[in-house]
Amino acid sequence: MGALPVDDSEEVKRTNEIKMAIPLLDAIDIEGKDVSADALLTQRKLADYLVTERKAPPDHGRIETRKIWTTSELNDYLDFPHVGQAFVVERHAREKKSGASSLEIAYGITSKTPDQADPQRVLKINRQHWTIENSCHYILDWNYDEDRSRIRTGHGPENITRLRRFAIGVIRSKGARVSPRKCDSSGATCDWS
Fold it and tell me: Where exactly are the structural domains of the chain?
């Protein structure tokens, strides 16, 4: 287990997450698998580790339309290791009930070349990344009511979130799915199916 932060600053928290990525990935087989990360983990050292050492190619009720543009023309300009393509994803969303609409534009890079992943494949990898991210956040908020947690001091909020994510991972690894029903306020009584 890695050391917990000794400082409450956001810089220390981000630095520790970056330092823990490689040791955590060392424990699992990722060769040939798609690995995606958010912007925080877009680090030269991690990209080199994933592609060179581990042979894993690295890559978030409404109606949503997505468009993607990919290019390899920027590869030399970007000065980042193992860039196969750069991409832009444009997401248009409209809420069914309110009619409110939004537009998000996201930029990314992948080590997959155009021969390895056409635009549709890059878009699918990007969407799967956000599906995973959002499903975990949903469970933390719905099952554990995390947004209303009263744990606010020191490293308590960060540590309890890590414990909750660990619990979700253990439950899923046993083949159970996390039920959308809420836990009680202590988290002791939950419904897992």
Answer: 10-58+61-173
